[in-house]
Amino acid sequence: MKTNTGEFRYHFRNPDSSSVFHSELVAIREALSLALDNRASDSWILTNSKSSIQFLKDWLNVLDMLGQDIISKLAALTQVSSVCFQYDKPSHVEVYGNEIADLLAPEGSELPTASFL
Predict the structure, then answer these.
(1) Confidence (pTM)
(2) Of 87, 88, 86, 6, which is closest to residue 40 (Cα–Cα)?
(3) What range(s) does the RNase H type-1 domain occupy (predicted)?
(4) Which residue, 5, 32, 54, 96, has most beta carbons within 10 Å?
């Protein structure tokens, strides 16, 4: 997150069983939390996850805890800031090397999980 006074970076790990969709929603929730915590005056949430935007667009039917948390944070932020969600081009499109990663991902998912002693 970039502000007038600096840049904040936040990273986290989801459980191994999390879907990409869930990870995108968690990232949106955390971005909204950062904006609220830092009292951002204008907030832009950039995502390449069309499904997460479509999910949140139907906010009256969002029933799960993560979705409700996002809607709650979004409502709070819009009281003090302007908020814009922007959908960027789909991930892995015209990004060097990602086509190969897409081809290898199914193979990698079939490999055994590494165990640590």
Answers:
(1) 0.67
(2) 6
(3) 16-105
(4) 32
What is the per-residue pLDDT across 18-49, written as a single tens digit (0 to 9) for each? 788 888 888 889 888 888 888 877 888 877 78
Separation CA 100–CA 104 (nearest Å): 6
Single-letter code of the amino acid located at 44: W
Spatial distance between the Cα atoms of 83 and 81, rounded to a whole number of angstroms:
6
Q: How far apart are CA 96 and CA 44, in angstroms?
A: 26
Long-range Cβ pairs for the range 54-63 (8 Å, 24+):
55/21, 55/25, 56/28, 56/85
Copy the structure tokens of residue 107: 């193979």
